[in-house]
Amino acid sequence: MGYIKGLNFKRVITLFSILVLFGNNMIFAQATGATPAKVDWLEVGYYVLLFVLVCLAVAIIGRVLNVYDLSLKMQGKKGIKWNNFNAYICLGFIIVGLGAAYWSITVQGSMTLPESASKHGVDIDNMFLVTSLLTLTVFVITQLLLFVFPFYYKHTEKRKAYYLPHNNTIEKVWTVIPAIALTILVVFGFFIWQEIENSTEVKGDLNVEITGHQFGWYLRYPGKDGKLGNVNYTLVDAQNSIGLDTKDPDAIDDLQADTLVFPVNKPVRLNIRAHDVIHSVYMPHFRLQQNAVPGLPTYFKFIPTITTAQMRIKTDDSKFEYLLYCNKICGGGHYNMQKVVRVVTEEEYLVWIAKQKPFLNTPATTKPEAKAPEVKVAALNKDADKKVLSTRLALNN
Ligand SMILES: [Cu+2]
Q: Is 139 helix (H, G, I), strand (E, B) or coil?
């Protein structure tokens, strides 16, 4: 009976306003940046009509049940057993709900990233897997208890409910077990995280500088000396995009690149900088993300383990590319901060690096006291930054 009585005027009005608000919100959200939001009244009308139809359907079903209930009572019968009705709704809900959860895991689960292409990424994936399995088990057990119990122990005149106000043993069990499980997860996670975030430089690391700006990335590789020259933000100008210190002898042979290329199975140490606002270096295939903060260089050391060619076979996608995204909403062109990342063999890397252009056209003097020569920086291919290499959007947090 409550189903029909519940549909009073106040509730209808509240539901109606919620629906209209949500409908409008969705319409406005589709409008982008400069173009003013236009209300599509046809769409609003569609939602209103849909809402009225749903209300009508609920009201009709309610009325039919009500009439059925009354006719039963007129015949001297007991009428509809609403307790049983509720119990079956609970059972239906858990069957549909768990079915939907299964669908979500199997269908959407296959949309996840391919296997990790970095060494530390395997640890991250394992942690995710353990946490997911654990929470999934708890989820299934608690949901079954929550909905099957009301079905199984629905009201019957033959049975009296057991009064259980408090039980210390139960309290202890459901406090101590989750506490132990979470402590184990957190402690393991802590050690793995410490290892991942350890970016201390070791001889033989390939240092690559990646500087975020609105809206693109400048990439710098060390030359034959294997060292990146110093940069100084005060030296940034139209010609010297990253503020390379021309007095630093290590800077002379530094190279610029348009694609991030890494040799497989070699430790790479990213030197991450930002020019203007906070950006974030995000390479999901390597399970890697590190913020690029203006004035505060950050580092991330990792070992790529699967070449692009190998990943193309593994994913059965001949066009597969590893990608670098910006993972901080840094302005209007944020979505366009995308670059291709390639993992190649050592030989392929050496061939590629030999073809890269130097940052400086004129060699700088090695004497620090001498006047710095006029810097000519090879024109950076800025358009390349703007090129959308794929239609995939960066996943933002
Ligand atoms: Cu950005």
A: helix
